Amino acid sequence: MTEFEPVIGLEVHAELQTRSKMFCGCAVVDSTSAEPNSSACEICTGMPGTLPVINRRAVEYALRVALALNCSVAESSLFARKNYFYPDLPKGFQISQYELPLASDGWFDIEADQGEQRVRIRRVHLEEDTGKLFHREGYSLVDYNRSGVPLLEIVSEPDLRSVEQTRRYTLALRSLLRYLGVNSGDMQKGVIRFEANVSLRRTGSTELGTRTEIKNLNSFRALSRAVAYETERQRVVLSRGGQVRQATVGWDENREITLAQRSKEEAHDYRYFPEPDLPPLQIERAWIDRVRSELPELPAAKRRRFIAEYGLSEYSAGVLTEEPEVAEYFENAMSTLSPGALSAAVGPADPKTLIERTSQAVSPQRLANWLTVDLFGLLNQAGLAIEKSRVRPDSLAQLVGLVEAGTINAASGKLVLEQLFREGGSPQAIVRAKGLAQLGDQSQIRPLVDRVLAEHPDQVSAYLAGKHTLTEWFLGQIMRAAGGRADPAVVRTELEAALQEKSRSTQ
Predict the structure, then answer these.
(1) Within-domain flag for 290
(2) Could you tell me if residue 122 is inside a domain?
(3) pLDDT score recorded for residue 357
């Protein structure tokens, strides 16, 4: 049986977070909640006699992305008219870029199973978004609030070979756009949309197969399932000796299948020609240099730094740096872990706590684990973003310090975190108010051990007769007597000492 491999290229459309639209002064509003057609004017609705004006901030945002994707920026680029009719396109054409885009020939490295993988970027160009249709039984409504919103199109070369690579590329690209501050990444509001070009070829061949283009995928789930379905559909066709027809297809979310929309579609179908109402877009070298100098630390670089500087695992570093707000939260928490900060924070909770022990105990990896497992779990249950959390970064660091120093145990730590999440406040105050400080002193634990042994003489006799598995049972009884607050290591030490004394006394 002939084996085939997928060849996948992506077109990613990202709305730019400007205050006004691409070619007019209308405000960019939330198209999912704003009153329909409340932010539209004669320019973005294509009235006769109107003239567009390029949004400088949109161009600067596009430059950020192009430079972050290692593209060559054209000092002169052109806008063009892409002609087609659709009810959500009031002008009958879309202002876009075609022959001379803003930037081209870049690359973007992503993490893949086999290590870092480079995806080539063919072009990055500016255009305007369309309106939005709402279909009802027997009729459709159109909202032009989104019409004219600045849209950035990022086109990759067909360098992706699997659904998983496609997913990782789009996740990494979304993270990059958020770090650059040009896109919110809110998939539910449609601010990022995907179009996938999928073809198959015989494994080992360099010749490209006939592709289909899957239009308007607005979630990572839809993208993954649509690409997987189309890949398998083409594999079946080719395995049976058939031919794949070039077409534009849509994804039916309910039936989870692709459906043909249009047959072969080429650039000439859109009758591109230069936009007569806009001059060439001139980008000065000084502007490019300034934007490049102002780029923030990007996700891949931050991930590498977290591994090198904090000694985090690759997985933890990846989770922490996926969202800029999470990375900032972690670093703010780490900044409180100086001995002085811990002395002020932990000291009052338990006079017997050694501050030096605490500062040594709190490792970045432990803090990362509490953040990405325990705090993330609470945030997910509540449907909150981390910037909305009542748990301050310094409070989480102090809480982890209390657990790692042995002032409280892990179970108590989770209780404290839950209260911090509900009400905020200080972990030390919660520990004191609830009496959660862990019993770790011999003088506190030995009486509990002696009491439990005295209350269970039959089990003690069985242990002395050779049933040493009762050690774990005794441990459970002592921890219960201590209300779960005893240090298990100290309990075990004192229990073994007490049992040895009883054993010697019977000899």
Answers:
(1) no
(2) yes
(3) 41
Report pLDDT for 2. 57
Q: Which residues of 119-158 are buried (b: 16+ CB within 10 A; e: fewer)?
A: bebbbbbbbbbbbbeeeeeeeeebbbbbbbbbbbbbbbbb
Q: Could you count the other beta carbons within 10 Å of the beta carbon of residue 377?
A: 13
- Cβ contacts of residue 255 below 8 Å, gap of 6+? none
**240 CB burial (10 A radius; 0-12, 13-18, 19+):** exposed
Asked if the structure places residue 325 within a domain, the reply is yes
Q: In sequence order, what are the residues at sequence separation of 6 or more whose Cβ sits closer than 8 angstroms to the Cβ of residue 66? A: 73, 102, 103, 106, 124
Q: Is residue 501 part of a domain?
A: yes
Query: Last residue of a domain, which of 434, 453, 481?
Result: 434
Give the C-alpha separation, 314 to 171, whole Å: 17
- Asked whether residue 340 carries a pLDDT value surpassing 80, the answer given is no
**Does 459 share its domain with 396?**
no
Do 258 and 251 contact (CB within 8 A), yes or no? yes
Q: Which domain holds residue 92?
A: 4-270
| pTM for the full predicted model | 0.85
